[in-house]
Amino acid sequence: EIGHLIVTFRFEGALWIDFKKNKGTFIFDPGHLEGQWEAQYSGRGLGLQSCFTTMLVESMSKQDLQDELDLKEGMELGLAAMREHFRLGHGHGDSNPKGVQFEKIEKEISKQSSDRFGKCNFNIAEAINNKKDRPWTLMDIGLSQQTGYPHYEPAMKILKQGLSSIKNIPYAQFGNMLTIDRGEIQSLNGIKGLIENYRKKGDGKSPLCIAVFGQPGSGKSFGIKQLAKGIWQESHHEYLLEFNLSQFSYEEQLIGAFHLIRDRALKGLVPLVFWDEFDSMDLKWLSHFLAPMQDGCFLEGQTMHPVGKSVFVFAGGTSYTMEAFIPETGNTERYKKFIASKGPDFVSRLQGYIDVLGPNKRKKLKCANSQEPEWEDDDSDLYFPIRRALLLRAIDGVSPDEKLDADEGLLRAFIEIDEFKHGARSVATLWTLMKNRGQAKIRRSDLPPREQMSLHVNYEDFMKLIENNE
User: Fold this and answer.
1) Is the separation of the CB atoms in 463 and 454 below 8 Å?
2) pLDDT digits (tens, 9 = 90+) for 141-151
3) HSE of 220 in the Cβ direction (CA atoms, 13 Å)?
4) 279 Cβ neighbours under 8 A, 6+ residues apart
């Protein structure tokens, strides 16, 4: 009979299951999941599990085994040792001794903070037999709050003190963008991997094609630009091209855009091309992209021109999600229009997509086959207050661990208001208007006039939230 089981997840974390007590403990790096820590370094490592096991056994040897066994410290030391061994390597070929550099590893580990990893404890039976209408997540455990209610209090703590104030929730950073949503983290990491692999190994015969969807003001362009910043580094502006297809009237304008892309590619660059509102004008432009997406060429008169090695990002303007963009099969007017506009052919040429979340509660599709998709609030989205907190800190420009000095009631109104009418744009506009007043501390007296505020929030509800927190 197995009493204890430990499973490591590369450099990201380790799981300890105590079968006798029916409990589990997960040790993890909140800010470097999905292979992000390992991606900082090149090469491969041998003896990683040996390092982990050595530190675990050493920690156990210092315990009185008559007492309750505690493996958490050993697991943390083991993960830290694996990382240092991978980072240091086995030394130069002429070094002596060769192999694992235990002295250097121990020295480096001793310098590190004791709270470098997050921890969460859970009941195994409850995790396996989860009866909730939403997935069991580390986030819920890390926040230690009853599920079924938005996470307002953790959001307030993050907004005022920074993400480090809550150490046991996973997050990811892409440039200046921070996200805590598991699905968004996985999607962004997947898109990042596609782009990096295409830039390094792609033959350039056709562009890499990705779609991005989200509610108006959800930050679709911001997220992609921050992703590009991390991949293209400081020169990402030189690689970025943006075109809003809702402003195009003639095919010649699209051909002109293709020539600009081709010019960048001929210079040896791999441009990131942001096609905004590609689904506008009743999907008019979809058919024009089929040849460039498939064959990497566009037609001008009687001449075919190669587009060149490039990354196409198609941002939806009328569809909030990929699910909404693709109507269900059936004899409906919307599906017939989708077929006539070459929608299925367009989708088949995409290599990936992402549904971006914004500061408002996530919307879910109520009816996909109506003439216009019908939406309703997704009550399983408990994390929109935290997304707002992260967005506000990014807009303010405060450093990760710096305290945000502002009126308590005002901050709570930003976190708890039902909706920002124009998503992230409304959040940014209101906060910037107040900050431009030049006060050291932002107060409710810095709020813009009622007429301006009503453009972005429900004024009465916003002011009531402020008054309730006096």
Assistant:
1) no
2) 666 544 446 78
3) 26
4) 286, 316, 317, 318, 319, 325
The CA distance from 234 to 351, in Å, is 26
What is the C-alpha to C-alpha distance for residues 28 and 20, in angstroms, rounded to an integer?
23
Q: What is the pLDDT of residues 309-364, one digit of tens each?
A: 999 999 998 888 898 898 877 767 888 889 999 999 999 999 999 988 889 998 88
Q: Omega before 327 cis (within 30°)?
A: no
Token reading at 466 = 């402020």
Q: What is the mean pLDDT of the chain?
A: 85
Distance, in Å, from the CA atom of 54 to the CA atom of 131, rounded to the nearest integer, reads 39
What pLDDT was estimated at residue 283?
A: 92
Write out the two tokens for 289. 């992209």
Beta-bridge partner residues of 26: 15, 120
Residues 84 and 91: beta-carbon distance below 8 Å:
no
Contacts of 39 (CB under 8 A, 6+ apart): none
Q: Flag whether pLDDT at 368 surpasses 60.
A: no
- pLDDT, tens only, 241-287: 999 999 999 999 999 999 999 999 999 899 999 999 999 898 999 99
